[in-house]
Design goal:
Elements (H helix, E strand, L loop, with lengths): L13 H10 L14 H16 L3 E10 L2 E11 L8 E10 L4 E11 L8
Antiparallel strand pairs: 1-2, 2-3, 3-4
Length: 120
């Protein structure tokens, strides 16, 4: 009795491979959705900044539309102290594109929580 050998698959010829590639529909990358409104854009920005900094932002102090997305000032607690009024916060300028992806962020200012803005 002869033992049955496993069937080996045959490698397609270059011409067969090209024909198969043409027959398969092209795979589309999912279309990115535009963020609708400032609130949705800032929720996305806050999530991403939080992930990068490892701290949850305290607030968003300003939001404005720009040519291809949104720009905001995000306030982050950087150093917690006792009493609370001596804690150090930072203001970050955050830019997200129309789909809500973080484009850039930079710290623009550090200040103590108890500091108030004074007119110059």
């Amino acid at each position: 009795m002869a033992s049955a050998e496993p069937r080996r698959s045959r490698r397609p010829s270059p011409e067969e491979g090209e024909a198969a590639a043409r027959a398969k529909p092209a795979r589309k990358t999912p279309a990115r959705r535009r963020i609708s409104g400032a609130a949705a854009a800032m929720r996305s920005a806050v999530e991403q900044v939080s992930e990068l900094l490892g701290r949850v932002p305290e607030s968003v102090s300003s939001v404005r539309p720009i040519e291809d997305g949104w720009e905001a000032q995000v306030e982050v607690l950087e150093l917690e102290r006792i009493p609370d009024t001596t804690s150090i916060l930072a203001s970050y300028k955050v830019t997200v594109d129309a789909e809500g992806e973080l484009i850039s962020y930079e710290r623009t200012r550090r200040y103590s929580r108890g500091m108030i803005d004074r007119p110059t």
